[in-house]
Specification:
Layout lengths: L6 H10 L8 H24 L11 E2 L1 H6 L5 E3 L3 E4 L2 E3 L4 E11 L7 E4 L4 E8 L10 E8 L2 E3 L2 E5 L1 E9 L2 E3 L2 E4 L11 E4 L5 E3 L2 E3 L4 E4 L5 E3 L2 E12 L5 E3 L2 E12 L5 E3 L2 E3 L7 E6 L5 E3 L2 E3 L3 E7 L8 E3 L2 E3 L3 E7 L5 E3 L2 E3 L3 E5 L9 E3 L2 E2 L17 E5 L3 H5 L10 H12 L6 E6 L25
Length: 458
């Protein structure tokens, strides 16, 4: 007789064991099902039972720590999150080591300084309010002699707001505003009545403008600003120096109004195509220097509005105007500015004017024009004949703004071609460069940019 194996043998052995003696196969199956049910229920209970929730990280109040810090002492924050808003009212050093976060409560500014000689380093400030009336900011500064270095500001309406702050340094900071439409944001940087400050090597994102109002003798150098309305907007701020800054994807690049003694050197403005769309706009800011700037792919590279008194004194030299819809646009009176060693390449329209006579008194010397049609027989690098910019059919849209819609249209281009081929009206001469360059002049090296006495570029 064959021997039973497998489950039959195990069942026979189980029936013969002392603990399960007398059980029928049906009873044994019931006990097995009951044990499986108990195990399954315990497993489900273990999965569904809620465990203890981790306690939220409490914010440590910052204001008591500031009040307990002696005058002139250093407060080094341990890594963690601290509760704002907070206010500093005495000279001190506040350092976060890049790991201390000061959280605003969504009302007002995150941190305010109302003292002299305060140093802030390695902090992350975030969560300001959203009131334009209160000027809710990441950091508000008053006083004199501050140093603000290597900080980050995030989710703030205004970034840095200087009100009556003097002789302070803001360097190596990063600012990113709230995710709002450009017109609803605050300024990434705002100076009001704040002279003699240095704003260097900062990175601004998602702000409205960089604004200076009634703030003379400031230096902005090596900063970068992207995704804004106006890149740099200065009003009644004489002797402003802006050097080596990069402005991209802003509606307008640099706008300076009523600020004589201006210096714009080595800046790069690209893709300024909305909100006026000019790389540089100057209005009644005489005795200024515009040198070595790059103005690329803007609606207008340079807009000049001369004052009614005709005072000029602008030195515009060594700049590169490329791929703009209009290279330069002149408003107002005749002006009396000097254009020298500039380069004009691949602009749809090189020069435009608001009316006959605008910009007629400007002086031109040694500029490089990609549309120049002369020769250089003596090989000195300059054209043998002067370069003239003449207006033919383009006068229609320049003198009649409503006709601007048809600018560069096939019909207007054909009309302009026919007028140049066989003029049936006298063209208007906008400018004449008696000695145009055939090779672009080399831009001034960065080492030649002036620096205030005692300052270092490193």
């Amino acid at each position: 007789m064959p021997t039973r194996t497998g489950p039959f043998r195990r069942l026979r052995d189980a029936r013969r064991s002392p603990g399960l003696a007398g059980l029928t196969p049906l009873g044994l199956a019931g006990w097995v099902l009951l044990a499986l049910g108990l195990l399954l229920g315990a497993s489900r209970a273990a999965v569904q039972a809620p465990g203890p929730r981790p306690a939220p990280t409490a914010l440590q109040p910052l204001q008591p720590l500031l009040e307990a810090t002696p005058t002139g002492a250093t407060l080094r924050l341990a890594p963690g999150r601290y509760q704002g808003p907070a206010r500093i009212t005495r000279p001190m050093r506040l350092e976060g080591g890049g790991q201390a976060v000061i959280e605003g409560d969504g009302q007002g500014s995150v941190l305010e300084v109302a003292a002299d000689g305060v140093t802030l380093r390695g902090l992350l400030l975030r969560g300001s309010g959203d009131s334009q009336d209160r000027i809710d900011a990441g950091l508000r500064l008053q006083g004199e002699g501050h140093v603000v270095e290597d900080n980050r500001l995030d989710d703030v309406l205004f970034g840095f707001v200087l009100q009556g702050a003097r002789r302070s340094l803001l360097r190596g900071n990063r600012v990113r505003g709230k995710a709002l439409a450009p017109g609803m944001r605050g300024d990434a940087l705002r100076l009001w009545n704040s002279p003699h400050n240095r704003i260097e090597d900062n990175h601004f994102q998602r702000g409205r403008d960089l604004t200076l109002i009634n703030s003379p003798d400031n230096l902005l150098r090596g900063n970068r600003f992207e995704d804004g309305r106006y890149g740099l907007h200065a009003v009644f701020s004489p002797r402003l120096r802006a050097e080596g800054n990069q402005l991209e994807r802003t509606g307008t690049g640099i706008v300076v109004l009523y600020s004589p003694g201006l210096q714009l050197r080595g800046n790069r403005v690209a893709h300024a195509l909305t909100d006026g769309g000019a790389g540089i706009v100057l209005k009644e800011s005489p005795d200024s220097l515009i040198e070595g700037n790059e103005l690329l792919h803007c609606a207008v590279g340079l807009k000049l509005d001369a004052g009614v008194e005709g005072r000029g004194g602008l030195q515009i030299r060594g700049n590169h105007f490329a791929h703009n819809l209009i290279g330069m646009f002149f408003y107002g009176e005749a002006g009396a500015d000097q254009f020298q060693d500039n380069r004009y390449s691949a602009n749809l329209t090189t020069v435009a004017i608001s009316a006959p006579g605008a910009g007629a008194a400007h002086r031109w010397q040694g500029n490089h024009w990609d549309e120049y049609q002369g020769f250089d027989r003596d090989g000195d690098g300059f054209g043998d004949t002067p370069h003239e910019v003449l207006l033919f059919a383009d006068r229609l849209w320049m003198e009649t703004p409503m006709a601007t819609f048809f600018r560069n249209s096939p019909a207007l281009e054909l009309l302009d071609f026919l007028e140049r081929l066989a003029p049936f009206t006298s063209p208007y001469r906008v400018l004449i460069d008696p000695r145009p360059r055939l090779r672009a002049a080399e831009p001034p090296p960065p080492s030649t940019l002036p620096t205030p006495s005692g300052e270092s570029r490193s």
